[in-house]
Amino acid sequence: MTGVYWFVALQFALGAITKYWPGETFFGPPYAVQFVEWGYPSWMRFVVGSLEGLAAVLLVIPSRRTRFLGATTLAFVLTGAVTTHIISPDGLSESWAAPTHLVIAGALALANWPADWRDLLRAPAGRAPSPTR
């Protein structure tokens, strides 16, 4: 299962890097151009790229809490991506990745679902503090 987290994290780390890339990528035209064509300001690619990069880091930290937060961050970003591809005139060949990744992010979020929501807010359990003298 760790390999799955690393594989998904690698994909989104690569996606984050391409959002910052100024020129054409192997995915097609520059994201600065694509975001404008989709109706967003070009700087929005930095926000999306930062969220993808943060989520990728959270996915590789071996903690249910961080993996849940990473997967839900991706689900949030990918919901926007799926909506964008539904509204934009992109063809099916350009629009299949976002829904596929949304399903994967949802599955990872469900796999790491906390038993209690308050667990997300609590400090991780560790050693008890040593008494002061």
From TrEMBL:
Q: Which InterPro entries match?
A: DoxX (IPR032808)
Choose one Gene Ontology CC annotation of this protein and give it.
membrane
Keywords (alphabetical) are: Membrane, Transmembrane, Transmembrane helix
Tell me which domain of life the UniProt entry assigns to the organism this sequence originates from. Answer: Bacteria
Chief location category: membrane
Q: Where are the transmembrane segments?
A: 42-61, 68-89, 95-113
Q: Where in the cell is it found?
A: Membrane
Membrane topology field? Multi-pass membrane protein
Give yes or no: UniProt keyword Cytoplasm.
no
Pfam short name (any one): DoxX_2
What is the name of the protein in this document?
DoxX family protein
What organism is listed for this UniProt entry? Nonomuraea zeae
